[in-house]
Amino acid sequence: xxxxxxxxxxxxxxxxxxxxxxxxxxxxxxxxxxxxxxxxxxxxxxxxxxxxxxxxxxxxxxxxxxxxxxxxxxxxxxxxxxxxxxxxxxxxxxxxxxxxxxxxxxxxxxxxxxxxxxxxxxxxxxxxxxxxxxxxxxxxxxxxxxxxxxxxxxxxxxxxxxxxxxxxxxxxxxxxxxxxx
Length: 181
Known about the structure:
Oligomer: single chain
Radius of gyration: 17 Å
Order of helices and strands: HHEEHHHHH
Structural class: mainly alpha
Number of domains: 1
Low-confidence stretches: none
Helix content: 55-70%
Shape: globular
Strand order of the largest sheet: 1-2
Number of helices: 7
């Protein structure tokens, strides 16, 4: 029996449970885009010329990611996340045409830098990042970042209220006091 489709709200509520410290959220605003950019760089090879366009693994995977974002029950957020991911992939594509050393350095470097920044955020959070969720979990991070950025300018207030009602308000954890286990 197929599993029901999880909505953006449900996935973001779950994601937010381990992302309540404002410093952790701030590190994700840097780390997640770096990781998407790095993946875009690495998926910029091999390129197949189709007319004047280059078709790469990044652009083959993008429609699947965009369809996933657009079918989570919150079209506006899905569209915004799709645009953000497309921009980061587009920025990474020219590096696929660079030499192998530059391609790997930028791709692996951006992925690693993003991961380290996110790891620092989870230090502030006081707990490790969840290590489950499959492929969908990789797509929720960019959606979370887009939501945080857009909520910062007053958009998606009702969705943010639903998430905070479930996961609790954001805070700055006192690092001198460890979380109870």
